[in-house]
Amino acid sequence: MFAIVRTGGKQYRVAAGDKIAVEKLAGEAGDTITLDDVLLAGDGGEVKDAKGVKVSAEIIAQAKGEKVIVFKKRRRHNYRRRNGHRQPLTLLRITGVGGTKAKKAAPKKEAAPKKEEAKAAPAKKAAAKKAPAKKAAPKKEAAAKKPAAKKAPAKKAAPKKAAAKKKD
Q1: CA 149 to each of CA 128, 138, 145, 152: distance values in angstroms, whole numbers, following the listed order
Q2: In angstroms, how far is CA 99 from the centroid of its own chain?
Q3: DSSP symbols for 102-119
Q4: Is the terminal CB of the chain with fewer CB neighbours within 10 Å at N or C?
Q5: Are the beta carbons of 80 and 104 closer than 8 angstroms?
Q6: Distant-in-sequence, close-in-space partners of 3: CB < 8 Å, separation ≥ 6
């Protein structure tokens, strides 16, 4: 069985026994963690419902990735900056894919409040429908009160050169 999990802003296709390097996760070597954000699960060519599927993994080590050189330069300005970066990573060994959550039987006491909420919901919907009608009228008034667009100022007349020549 395989799964697509999201961790550290990236997505990974994992199966039992795989080793992956992900963005740093809290924990020490030997700790067991679960990856709950499963986007897709399947078995062979079949895609199954990923709802409730969990992926369990064991932390192998906390490590750093390869060094990346960041070099900035602006030509003709004597500006050069050199910087290095090593991203912290967590190495994981996937121990199992699956482990669906067991559905809990809903007690009868919890079922009753849901019915009450369902009855209250139509009343809320009716109130919500009336509210936008009241808000629509002030918006129209606000639109009517907007000032007219300003006109561009008139261009000044160019100085008369003929008058200056007469004085000579």
Answers
A1: 36, 21, 12, 10
A2: 27
A3: PPPPPPHHHHHHHHHHHH
A4: C
A5: no
A6: 13, 14, 15, 38, 39, 40, 41, 42, 50, 53, 55, 97
Query: In terms of pLDDT, which residue wins out, 43 or 162?
Result: 43
Residue keyed to tokens 């090593």:
86
Using DSSP's 3-state secondary structure scheme, residue 130 falls into helix
Q: Sign of the CA dihedral 35, 89, 29, 92?
A: positive
pTM: 0.55
Report the candidate in 39, 48, 52 with the shortest Cα–Cα distance to residue 100.
52
Phi and psi (nearest 5°) for 21? -110, 120
Q: Look at residues 13, 28, 9, 25 and name the one whose alpha carbon lies nearest to residue 94.
A: 13
Q: What CA–CA distance (Å, rounded) separates 36 from 59? A: 16
Count of positions (residues) in the chain:
168
